[in-house]
Every structure is written in C-alpha cells, then in structure tokens.
Amino acid sequence: MTKTFGDRIAVDDVSFSVARGEVFGFLGPNGAGKTTTVRILGTLIAPTSGSAVVAGIPLVPANEAEIRRRISIMPEAPGLYRRLTVTENLEYFARLYGLPGRQARIREALDAVDLGDRAQDLCGSLSKGLRQRVALARTLLNDPEVMFLDEPTSGLDPVAAHEVHGLINTLRQRGVTVFLTTHRLDEAERLCDRVAIMNTGLRTIGRPDELRHMLFSRSLAVTTAAPLGDPDRIFAGLPAVESWRDAGTPTAVPAGASAATPSGYVVAVSDPARAAPAVTRALVAAGADVLSITESRYSLEDVYLELVEDQEGAAR
Ligand SMILES: Nc1ncnc2c1ncn2[C@@H]1O[C@H](COP(=O)(O)OP(=O)(O)O)[C@@H](O)[C@H]1O
Ligand SMILES: [Mg+2]
User: Fold this and answer.
1) Is 141 part of a structural domain of the chain?
2) What is the sign, positive or negative, of the torsion defined by CA atoms of 227, 232, 237, 241?
3) What is the pLDDT of residues 83-126, one digit of tens each?
4) What is the pTM of this model?
5) Neighbours of 48 (CB within 10 A)
6) What's the number of domains the chain is made of?
7) Atom 8 of ligand 1 has which residue's CA nearest to it?
8) Based on the domain organization, do 28 and 177 belong to the same domain?
9) Pairing of strands 71-74, 146-150
C-alpha cells in the first residue's frame, strides 16, 4: 500500500500481514504514517495505490460497510461528548452504528472495561485514563473481530497505561485481533506477538526477540575486580566464544568492589548457555576475581533506535 498527500509520501509501499487473534504492534516516530495506515485499513481514506484485505474481506468500496461491521477503531483522540454521561455517549454511538440489543451491549462493554459504577457520570468529569476506558468500551460495542487502537496510552500516567495494557490482554484472551500503534517500545515489547517498525516505509517486522537477535549479536558482559593480564589467552578458543573486546572501566561498579580498577569485557558468543560456564571457569583458572557475568540484553528500544536513526542518518 502507498498513500500520498499531494507530493508528500505518508506511507511508502508498505506490505505486511497480521494473523487472526494476534496482537500486532505498529511502531514508528511521529509522522511515520501509522495513523494514515489505520485510516486506510479502517475504510476512512483510500490508498493511493495497492490493496488490502481486512478481517478477511478485500478492501474495496463495495465492501466498506461490511468491513466496518467487523472492525472498530479507537482513534488518537477519544472523541466523546463531555456533557453527556458515559451511558449516553455509548447509547449515542450504538444508535449511530445501528446496533441491535443496545442495552445489553452497553452493559457488557462497560463491564469489560470495569466502568459499571461510573455509567451515570458525565464524561467531562472523568480523568483522562477513565475517558480512554470509555473510548475502549465504545470500540467494544459492535463485538469486533479486528480492533485498531491508535496510541491508546499516549498521555496516560503509568497506572492508567497499565490498566489499558490489562484490557489489551483481555482482548487477546477473547481472540480479538489487535492492531496497536504506539511509539512506546516497552508497551510493544510487553504486549505484542509481533511488531512492525515503520518510518514511511516498513523498516522491519518480526517477534520482538527475533528483531533483537537479527540486529545484535549475542554477548556476555564480564566485569573483573582488576584488569586481566592477558585477556586473549583467557577468552580465545573457548566454546561458543567468537570474539572479545575491552569495555574499559564499567560505570556501575558493584558495591564493595576493591580498590583495584574494575574492568569490563564484552565477549561475543554464539550460545550464551554454552559460553558463560566456560568463560567463568577460564577466568577463575586464570586467578581473576569475577565481579559479574551476565548476558547483554538488547531491548526493543535498541532495535528501534538502530533502525530509525540509521534512516535519519542516511537522509541527511
Ligand atoms: N490529511 C492529510 N493531509 C496531508 N498530509 C497528511 C494528512 N494526514 C497525514 N499527513 C502527513 O502524512 C504523514 C504521516 O502522518 P501520520 O499517519 O499521522 O503519522 P503518525 O500517525 O505515524 O504520527 C505526516 O507527514 C503527515 O503530516
Ligand atoms: Mg498518529
């Protein structure tokens, strides 16, 4: 799919698929084309070129009403009427969508987001986090198969964001396919089965752990109480060890370390489970005092920065 606005390319030849029941993260910086993609897949705007299938239905004008029945979208701004109560808002949207059995649907949606006791409160009197939950209740009214959540936790405090995460996990348990746009990497890493990293074009796609392994080799971080006399003799030739480098004096030195200068080494390995015991034994045999040995963990944030900054660098 490609979408241009005038001569600005918002979404550039992006292609991906999401499995039924998957929680799929769509990550990218501001202006990356996330909302544009959601609006295309949600039948709100047409792509400039390309095609899509949403909830198993080809995205063509004749199918738009049918697609809309099976999906729902929670936009960036909740778009609720502040001078109406929670129930009145849901009632209004349920009528607008032409849904049968409105009362039962509203009750179920409020229960799902645990807002039953706030049903008669004015939306304007609710905190931002609670309003976000009302917006989520609205997206549940039509019992969607596919749900698009556009930055659902942006601007929420950690407690409110945590509640939204809980609700997304509930959706997963119900088998709803969730398309989640976010620039919060911790959120994507915790919630999503797979993520796409996007910046106008698609940079990469995969499971969070796959992406980490794809971009970064695995390594062990070793800290010893004093510099090693001959590190090469210790590290070279050990099982599953590929190379090593001197990482200098670590900034975070364990409390109670001796007066000698602690020294850090990064050992690139093919299999940490095989390399770590061998490295530990070799260090002890060489008389080194080991302060710590851990596998370096790259976060999704490292992956993201590598990909997004890489591109910014190339554009300069
Ligand atoms: N209706 C529009 N008219 C013109 N440009 C737009 C329109 N909608 C989005 N854009 C542009 O497309 C790009 C992608 O925007 P958007 O999809 O909102 O990004 P994101 O949601 O990832 O922050 C931006 O450069 C934005 O300015
Ligand atoms: Mg957006």
Assistant:
1) yes
2) positive
3) 999 999 999 999 999 999 999 999 999 999 999 999 999 999 99
4) 0.80
5) 14
6) 2
7) 36
8) yes
9) parallel
